């Protein structure tokens, strides 16, 4: 067998998820059965200081010769970087991704991809013009669990999917946790709120089960009806959002399919860590597929068929041995002992694309990411939520 190819990553930003991602990146792909590629980290950049970038490299166990930069510009200019992972707040993704693409770098960008669909269209155009890979880091789509769920649907196990319920909500106690309103979860300047941060996963489940499973030429945009409740203390960020979607389908494909995607910073999908309530329910005439919380990192599915069959499956993340020590920000460690976090699946997809010259992710291409941004735009329009002009703009460069 040919020896594995190594992809050299540059990490743009040094916050919470950048750390988790980088630790997962450094787990040997052979531990999850991936033989044809390897990852390494050759550089990281902080927008605030070189020392912060150096601390990040030390903390994540990056190779000793990895470069620490005190600006994102230096990172994207580094000729040793094959691909850039962007882990800044939502507000900054458009500017940061454009910076990397302009510098000729392929990009894996954290969710939500951008603040609005227009920004993403511009990034997609730029990636096309420069012939560069661009993908949204919706890691859940790349889990073996998600692949299994999609296969159950396309194999007709429950019949044509007629309805999906998808929730990703956390009782965050925002007035206590994010008292001063500056945290990215509630800060309008950083495109805070439930929808872009958590609701994107509810929509991910809706789209990967009702839309992505359709033949490409049968996929049609849904009609959207939304209700939004604002988070009172910071005003321009949603606390709870509920979206009803209707996907047009031909009669042969089962007719129109409905979905309800919900998200909240006030109430939880699974109160007190109780994970017995499925947050995702995918329903067809033959039964339903249930996915247990959290929607962004599920490890358990159940299939319940009309004939009484019940199939439970566990999907532990393979591990480096020590786990990446991830905490969910609300106190609980969600990684079991010895597990990785699971961000390596999307990293493998991106690295494979770079090696093989593909320009988009296989399980969520740019058109689908744009459509999901359009749904979020529509939900914000109906809910009356706009963000400050400087982060909604497509003007590049804009100083944030
Ligand atoms: N896939 C997943 O499971 C998760 C994804 N995310 C996504 O990752 C992104 C980052 O989230 P998270 O790591 O929690 O955020 P953090 O606040 O922990 O980190 C954000 C990073 O962005 C850099 N940054 C640049 N400009 C700013 C600014 N004006 N304000 C704040 N930070 C700034 C920071 O500094 P510096 O440049 O110095 O590093 C910081 O390191 C978001 O898009 C979020 O939705 C978050 C959590 C989980
Ligand atoms: O992507 C995410 O998943 C985990 C959550 O805790 C976090 O807020 C969100 O950004």
Automatic annotation (TrEMBL):
Q: Oxidoreductase among the record's keywords? A: yes
User: What Enzyme Commission number(s) apply to this enzyme?
Assistant: 1.1.1.179
Q: Where does this protein come from, organism-wise?
A: Didymosphaeria variabile
Q: Which reaction does it catalyse?
A: D-xylose + NADP(+) = D-xylono-1,5-lactone + NADPH + H(+)
Q: Which residues form the Gfo/Idh/MocA-like oxidoreductase N-terminal domain?
A: 34-135
Q: Where is the GFO/IDH/MocA-like oxidoreductase domain?
A: 149-267
Under which main EC class is this enzyme filed? oxidoreductase
Which InterPro entries does the record match to this protein?
Answer: Gfo/Idh/MocA-like_OxRdtase_N (IPR000683), Gfo/Idh/MocA_domain (IPR050984), GFO_IDH_MocA-like_dom (IPR055170), NAD(P)-bd_dom_sf (IPR036291)
Specify one Pfam family. GFO_IDH_MocA_C3
Q: Which UniProt keywords apply?
A: Oxidoreductase
The name under which this protein is listed is D-xylose 1-dehydrogenase (NADP(+), D-xylono-1,5-lactone-forming)
Oxidoreductase in keyword set: yes
Similarity section = Belongs to the Gfo/Idh/MocA family.
Task: Select a single GO molecular function from the record's annotations and give it.
Answer: D-xylose 1-dehydrogenase (NADP+) activity
């Amino acid at each position: 067998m040919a020896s594995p190819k190594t992809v050299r990553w540059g990490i743009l930003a040094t916050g919470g998820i950048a750390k988790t991602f980088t630790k997962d990146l450094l787990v040997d792909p052979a531990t999850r059965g991936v033989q044809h590629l390897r990852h390494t980290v050759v550089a990281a950049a902080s927008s605030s200081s070189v020392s912060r970038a150096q601390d990040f490299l030390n903390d994540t166990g990056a190779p000793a010769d990895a470069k620490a930069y005190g600006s994102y510009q230096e990172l994207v200019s580094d000729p040793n970087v094959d691909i850039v992972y962007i882990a800044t707040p939502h507000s900054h993704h458009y500017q940061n991704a454009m910076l990397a693409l302009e510098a000729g770098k392929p990009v894996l960008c954290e969710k939500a991809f951008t603040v609005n669909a227009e920004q993403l269209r511009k990034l997609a155009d730029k990636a096309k013009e420069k012939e560069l890979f661009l993908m949204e880091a919706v890691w859940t789509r790349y889990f073996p669990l998600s692949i299994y769920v999609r296969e159950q649907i396309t194999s007709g196990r429950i019949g044509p999917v007629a309805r999906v319920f998808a929730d990703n909500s956390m009782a965050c106690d925002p007035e206590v946790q994010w008292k001063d309103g500056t945290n990215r979860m509630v800060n309008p300047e950083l495109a805070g709120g439930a929808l872009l941060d958590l609701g994107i996963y509810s929509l991910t489940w809706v789209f990967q089960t009702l839309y992505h499973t359709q033949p490409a030429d049968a996929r049609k945009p849904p009609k959207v009806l939304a209700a939004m409740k604002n988070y009172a203390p910071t005003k321009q960020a949603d606390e709870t959002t509920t979206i009803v979607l209707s996907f047009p389908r031909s009669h042969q494909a089962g007719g129109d399919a409905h979905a309800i995607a919900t998200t909240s910073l006030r109430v939880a999908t699974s109160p007190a860590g109780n994970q017995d309530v499925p947050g995702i329910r995918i329903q067809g005439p033959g039964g339903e597929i249930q996915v247990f919380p959290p929607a962004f990192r599920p490890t358990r599915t159940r299939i319940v068929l009309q004939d009484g069959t019940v199939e439970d499956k566990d999907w532990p993340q393979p591990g480096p041995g020590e786990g990446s020590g991830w905490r969910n920000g609300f106190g609980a460690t969600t990684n079991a002992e010895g597990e990785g976090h699971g961000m390596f699946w999307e990293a493998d997809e991106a690295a494979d694309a770079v090696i093989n010259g593909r320009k988009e992710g296989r399980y969520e291409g740019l058109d689908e990411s744009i459509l999901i941004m359009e749904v979020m735009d529509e939900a914000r329009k109906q809910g009356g939520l706009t963000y400050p002009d400087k982060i909604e703009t497509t003007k590049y460069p804009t100083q944030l």
